[in-house]
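FAQ
Q: What does a multi-component entry look like?
A: The components come first, one per line:
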Amino acid sequence: MLSKNKIKFITALQKKKNREEEKLFVIEGDKLVREFLNANIRLKILVAKPEFINSLTSDKLSLSDETESVSFGELRQLSSLKTPHNALAVVEKAEPGFDQSRIFQQLSVALDGVQDPGNLGTIIRAAAWFGISHIVCSNDSVDVHNPKVIQATMGAILHVQIYYADLLEYLAGARKKSIRVFGTMLEGESVYSNELADKGIILLGNESKGISPDLIPFISDRIYIPGTGSSKPGIDSLNVGMAASIVFSEFSRRN
Amino acid sequence: MLSKNKIKFITALQKKKNREEEKLFVIEGDKLVREFLNANIRLKILVAKPEFINSLTSDKLSLSDETESVSFGELRQLSSLKTPHNALAVVEKAEPGFDQSRIFQQLSVALDGVQDPGNLGTIIRAAAWFGISHIVCSNDSVDVHNPKVIQATMGAILHVQIYYADLLEYLAGARKKSIRVFGTMLEGESVYSNELADKGIILLGNESKGISPDLIPFISDRIYIPGTGSSKPGIDSLNVGMAASIVFSEFSRRN
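Then the predicted structure of the entire assembly, as tokens:
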């Protein structure tokens, strides 16, 4: 049986402020919890139905500092979802060192003000699929530890490092090192014909405003995804998650 | 001021059963309503804030059989969204004739049991972008007139015809006409190297179960999207909306 204080502590982590203070976040779902355990990540608290706990081997169970066996009703009290899963866990936020020169050696992603948790989740998932390991988000982007982002990544969060930074400074640094910045725009050169590189930064913008005017000067290659759509009313754009998937795929195909 | 009966009538359309009985559905949002009007589609009922109504030209306004000027509070009562927009409208369901031989002459899409409204919306949006005009859904797929699907399509619904059919029969018909069926799977030939065609059917499966076993024999080309992901735990797949975007892009690039 969970104490009221513990319920309060865990549900408080649905708020960004509390996640930042505690340096903790919540993962939900049998599959996600198993994936964290399989990656040997320590859980601060594991809260799950007895069947789930019993299904874990003892070496996995020992990765949890504190394990609470609970009823479905108790899980419902903790969950950010309409229908809770059988398990959730509180995990320490990884705070990866922001080693820019290492990131510059690879193909990476920068996100300027992506707001929708589902979109960030999709982008992380696509990045993981195509072997992109680093995403640098502007400070006003949605928090990667938001429960909806975590849910949408489906475990891909384990394979991609996410950083928050001032993109103006970051891209200025990239320019100094002559790193190409591929800005996805509504016009430019077709992503199919641009000479893509195996390193550089793919810059994607906010859902409605696109890339901020002050970042545009740092773009070395404006790329767009040609569509018949652009000429018809009502098809004004692909969403940023779809655009990311297509652009990552095209870089991956050519490299 | 809206009557109680009218409120009941409009909110009832959030249910599939009622949409089918009335052959009506609801579109929400200033932008979407404007796009329907710009496409000269008649509105059975337009419900909007006075500012929105006043912003319409009289020829557009005359496309609405019944126009109700309401407060934000009234819109909130009608809306399926947390935060209602300034306008919504009740529209007659278009029931396009299912002319299979015409569809077979083009590149089209078949969806086997796609359940998530957001995914169907994304797929319609991607189809519209890449000039694909026909999507045939299995009868157990999510209803295209579900408010969440309509919302996710962002107007692309105006450019893509959606049909519901028995896919077993439909694909059997395609085979008789020697139409290629490109099934997106986790294995097969890379979508980047398969010899794609400018006509045929792209078949996408259910979010968790993939393509039904009884449809697999109709696939002429098994295609997959290569990723580094497949080899790592926690990256088991791209979601169907992302896969659709990438595959449509690849067909578009090559044709």
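Q: Is there any commentary attached?
A: Sometimes. For this entry: Strands of chain B lie at 24-28, 45-48, 67-69, 87-92, 107-111, 134-138, 161-165, 181-190, 200-204, 221-224.
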